[in-house]
Design a protein that fits this description.
One of its GO terms (molecular function) is hydrolase activity. Helix content is about 45%, strand content about 15%. About 0% of the residues have low confidence.
């Protein structure tokens, strides 16, 4: 099972918020969110398989790789262990794809989603990067690849803290594990196309940095097609907006979650009254 950490309030009615990091990171990337969020919510932090304090998962000999179903079910296993029936989910970068996939596998477990630095579609530059990565991944040290990708996605001096954080976390991931995760890139394009075509109608807030030029345009488009989806752009921020501008990220995310929790409580009260 994945390594996880929880922070619980005394209030038995307090909703749960689950944080999901991106590839190469760990739950430590949320260190600037924890203090604020535990004032209002129960919080669950997970380290994805092979990341942070989570061990690599043994895969069948005939498989040798992971798919998004595998890494998504890992999170559901933790929820089942903790008896968390429903929660708000917050993701960053590739973690947003995992959350979106979870909303397909178990939609009844998702109250709302906050997508930070959301990956909705791969533009031409991103596709070229993925192709080059797959061509050279067995010949070039994986940290060279990861550092290069981090610089392309977060090129500004203002993104340096985010870039270094992710690179330093990625150093803790074994090369074999990195290869398994990189195979997910083969699955991304058709999966994202499916997500674009299918609207879950689950309340979703996209929090994007105004300098996230690789992924922001696709999010601007997707919110025009999907119901119950909103975009808020954070100034002076890149792809990893929860690190670049933590105060803005926290304020907007908490405001959204409180409004969603309020709506959920009202709906549950109506259902109880109707049952009476």
């Amino acid at each position: 099972m994945l390594h996880y950490k929880t922070y619980e309030l005394d209030d038995p009615e307090a909703p749960w918020v689950v944080f999901v990091h991106g590839a190469g990171g760990s739950s430590s990337i949320w260190f600037m969110q924890i203090k604020e969020f535990i004032r209002h919510f129960n919080v669950l932090l997970v380290d994805l398989r092979g990341h942070g304090k989570s061990k690599s998962i043994v895969v069948p000999k005939d498989k040798h790789y992971y798919d998004f179903g595998d890494v998504t079910r890992d999170i559901l296993e933790v929820l089942d262990t903790l008896n968390i029936q429903k929660a708000h989910f917050i993701g960053i970068s590739l973690g947003t794809i995992i959350i979106r996939n979870l909303s397909e596998i178990a939609p009844g477990r998702v109250t709302s989603m906050i997508m930070g630095g959301a990956i909705i579609r791969l533009n031409v530059r991103a596709k070229v990067l993925v192709t080059l990565g797959n061509m050279f991944k067995r010949f070039v040290p994986y940290m060279w690849l990861y550092s290069f990708f981090a610089w392309i996605i977060m090129p500004s001096e203002r993104h340096k803290r985010s870039r270094l954080l992710f690179v330093n976390e990625a150093k803790k991931v074994a090369q074999k594990e990195f290869m398994r995760w990189f195979t997910l890139t083969y699955e991304i394009t058709p999966l994202l196309k499916y997500f674009e075509e299918k609207d879950t109608a689950i309340p979703t807030l996209y929090l994007m940095g105004d300098e996230d030029h690789m992924f922001l345009p696709a999010v601007r488009y997707i919110i025009t097609k999907h119901t119950n989806s909103w975009l808020e752009v954070i100034g002076n921020s890149g792809h990893v907006c929860n690190v670049d501008q933590p105060k803005e990220f926290n304020s907007r995310a908490i405001h959204f979650l409180k409004s969603m929790s309020s709506v959920t409580s009202t709906e549950e009260s109506v259902v109880r009254l109707a049952a009476c």
